[in-house]
Design brief:
The chain is mostly beta strands. The chain is built from three helices and eight strands. 28% of the residues are buried.
Length: 177
Amino acid sequence: MATFYMVEMHYPVSEDRGAFDDFYHNHISMLLTIDGFLSAQRYECGPEARAPFLAVYRLRDADVMTSENYTSKAGRNSVDPAFRAKMTNWDRNLVQGDIGDMDVPEGGCMVLIDRHAADSPVLPDGFTPLEIVGLDATIVQRGVRIFPDGNAAAPDAPADGWTVRTFKPLHAPRHPE
């Protein structure tokens, strides 16, 4: 069972987007120095989404998030206050699932389905279920499917209970140096 730290947010399109992307690149570099962070990749979906930015970190295990090495230099307060003030819909979910990684190659995409309540419809076939095991736990379950060629076949969302988003990678997967 693989463990992933998934951070999503909204950041306004503005004149400092380049500076924000530079900050986040350096932030990922710092996180990858923490023992137990195995990989990282950032993604973006359409601007109409509640949280169009996503970062996915593969972890050795869930205990990494409570380790002294993590808590002493990471978390919400490790984000530059100038950027943090503009970040909204900022959710952090710790998930586990039977998937090796969530790396998406250039030209590919990832489709996420979020189940918002226990009585929401079950995930459709072809999606790997990810169980929420910690942090903000803003959803009941997440489903993921990677499309390496970018030809996503996202299901239609039922009228109630799901959010479906298609993410494109902002950069190649990164690993500790």
